[in-house]
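Researcher: Structure prediction, please.
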Amino acid sequence: MRVLLVLLITVLATVAFAGRSRSSAAAQDAATLAKIKSLVHNLSRSEKIEVIVSLFNGAISEPMTTLPPASNKDTNADVDQKLRDAYHLFLIKYKKRYPEGEDMEARFALFVNTCREVDQHNKGVLEGKHTSIQEVNKFADMTPAEKRSMSASSIDDEPSSSESKQKPWNNHANATSLDWSLLGAVNPGLNQNPCGSCWTFASTSAVEGCLAISKQGLVQLSQQQLQDCYFKKNCKPGGGSVSKAMRIIQEQGVTTNQVYPYIHNTGKCRNNVKSVVKVGQILRANNEDELLNLVKRGPVAIALASRDLHKYKKGVITNTSFAKRPIDHAVLLVGFANNCDNTGRDCWIVRNSWGERWGEKGYFRVERGKNIFGISKGLVAVDCKRV
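Model: Predicted structure follows.
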């Protein structure tokens, strides 16, 4: 009886804490939106014209050539209308539709603020401050809560696998650069939208790489099966553990995407499907040196902080302040290179799950050895078999 009482108290405390956390996050989001709306409202006429010019000439997005160019002869009303015209074109381009009653002023403010931030960043590239270029993309008018709903993933803390210090496969042991996506071990950029299922894409892709490298063909495994049957997570807000997903694939197996396709939504578990893979071993890394060793064996499922990643277009990300964000997103480490883009910086090559219209056709590069985005932990599958 006492044990049951303690268990009940623990559950109630957990629920109460989760409720407070959600309430706190909602309050923080509301404050952030209010701040952004105020900032946009108080932008000077010249600042607004700079944004319009950058949208028109393609400095921060694909050129909005149908947008009337802004000039110093425009009145404040003219400038405001051109910004709203730009947002309308953005909504059409990304096929965005919002329900009646949506706070479109907040959406508009988020869009304009993103344009302003991207414009400032890209001007910094010309000044030599950055080596990555940003753009205005589908995330430009999303709220902080919506961005979080596509992430909320982690890799559990566990000791490094002793096997992770073994030598990599001989043909890549001394490689100074490696990209598994060019060697037929990685499927093209996939799109989890709008679900928070990044952890399913990262974990299945690591196993797919293992199969391909062991010459058993490149298949696409079912992310939907993991989401529906084992974690029973709603599509949104999502969230899941890459570590647990990998262990489930190891212990229970998983079928193919062809048999159990991804539906971009929550589905009902189909537990009568047959597994097509058996994983013998999973190796772990807990720092970047170990990650370098692991990725020489195959694509690695990793977790990172995604907050500053949404606006990325191309180039090598080098901002070390990004390491201070909380870990919330799972992706696939596919390789590494030295002196990336002749910047003198070594980098990681990473595949995201935000579609091929994001980043470098679904990929991004980030400086290696600086723990940027908190990149340090990873899991790789070895000894895989088709069954």
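Model: Residues 151-386 form a domain with the Cathepsin B; Chain A fold (CATH 3.90.70.10).
Researcher: Thanks, that helps.
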